[in-house]
């Protein structure tokens, strides 16, 4: 359940910084695991989460392009726990998910100096963001807002 301080700008900013930091830590952890597992050159690790070209991001290929796609999907799956642990408010969970996705889009554009035109990248990020938004709200609702309140006099 949201408290009064959850709506203050200072609190939102702190939680957003924590959420974004956790988002990219999770993204790079999965990238490191997949770079090692798929025998990709380690010098590609820095830009691994920001791949947007079809030759660099595709589940159909069995090389580093598959790893980049898997890193994004696994990051969004792990962010369910991040949203539960950091956001702690049902009505705000989708805000943090959408903000992290939009920021990731902007960083991809800045780092690659190109707009993503890969339909697989767009489909993946839009579906992952939508599913994470819905699941995060449900998880926060049932595990935080709907938990039983212990009463002393019962």
UniProtKB/TrEMBL annotation:
<keyword id="KW-0472">Membrane</keyword>
<feature type="transmembrane region" description="Helical">
    <location>
        <begin position="119"/>
        <end position="143"/>
    </location>
</feature>
<feature type="transmembrane region" description="Helical">
    <location>
        <begin position="16"/>
        <end position="40"/>
    </location>
</feature>
<dbReference type="Pfam" id="PF09801">
    <property type="entry name" value="SYS1"/>
</dbReference>
<feature type="transmembrane region" description="Helical">
    <location>
        <begin position="94"/>
        <end position="113"/>
    </location>
</feature>
<protein>
    <recommendedName>
        <fullName>Protein SYS1 homolog</fullName>
    </recommendedName>
</protein>
<feature type="transmembrane region" description="Helical">
    <location>
        <begin position="66"/>
        <end position="87"/>
    </location>
</feature>
<dbReference type="InterPro" id="IPR019185">
    <property type="entry name" value="Integral_membrane_SYS1-rel"/>
</dbReference>
<keyword id="KW-1133">Transmembrane helix</keyword>
<keyword id="KW-0812">Transmembrane</keyword>
């Amino acid at each position: 359940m949201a408290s009064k301080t959850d709506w203050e700008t200072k609190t939102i900013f702190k939680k957003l910084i924590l959420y974004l930091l956790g988002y990219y830590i999770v993204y790079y952890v999965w990238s490191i695991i997949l770079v090692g597992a798929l025998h990709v050159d380690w010098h590609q690790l820095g830009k691994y989460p920001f791949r947007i070209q079809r030759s660099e991001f595709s589940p159909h290929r069995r090389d580093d392009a598959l790893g980049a796609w898997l890193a994004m999907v696994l990051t969004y799956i792990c962010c369910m726990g991040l949203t539960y642990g950091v956001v702690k408010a049902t009505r705000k969970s989708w805000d943090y998910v959408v903000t992290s996705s939009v920021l990731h889009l902007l960083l991809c554009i800045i780092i690659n100096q190109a707009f993503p035109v890969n339909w697989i990248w767009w489909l993946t990020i839009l579906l992952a963001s939508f599913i994470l938004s819905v699941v995060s709200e449900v998880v926060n609702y049932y595990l935080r807002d709907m938990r039983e309140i212990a009463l002393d006099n019962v």
